[in-house]
Amino acid sequence: MNIRLATPADVSVVTDFNLLLADETEQLKLDPPTVRAGVTAVLNDKHKGLYFVAELDGRIAGQLMITYEWSDWRNGDLWWLQSVYVHPDFRSRGVFRALFTHLTELARARKDVAGIRLYMHHDNETARRTYERVGMKRAGYEVFELDFVLNRSAEAKS
Prior knowledge:
- The model has no long low-confidence stretch (mean pLDDT 93).
- The longest helix is centred in the first third of the chain and has 16 residues, at 11-26.
- The chain is built from five helices and five strands; from the N terminus they run βααβββαβαα.
- A five-stranded mixed sheet has the order 1-2-3-4-5.
- Helices cover 39% and strands 26% of the residues.
- The chain has helices spanning 11-26, 32-44, 95-108, 125-133, 149-157, and strands spanning 2-5, 50-56, 59-71, 76-86, 113-118.
- It has one domain: Aminopeptidase (3-Layer(aba) Sandwich), CATH 3.40.630.30.
């Protein structure tokens, strides 16, 4: 398995994976041009985040993205895992574990990374078990949001 940084040439696969992820985990039908623009923005600006992809059998088998949050309490960055997706053809083959191991090795090698976090949909038990198997623990926080983009899209359709 090859783990690498995604490049602009990967925009279509990453976009497709993000659309599949939203549908599978939250039954959300996202706007493909909006998602593609968002993926392109990350691929063209490492300050927004980084996508990593896992290649297996000549195909991109999975992905994850990191974004950054400054922690004044830790005087370092927290890397947030987002857009975690493994194509169904490659599940249960260690793709996520390989991506996660690669990422944690990168993070541990840097003095400016204080930790890794993620959020997931509350009823995604498969993801919960996967994250616990790689050593992640519940942080005790709840996520609140005021979503302008998805709410705006839903309002426009009604």
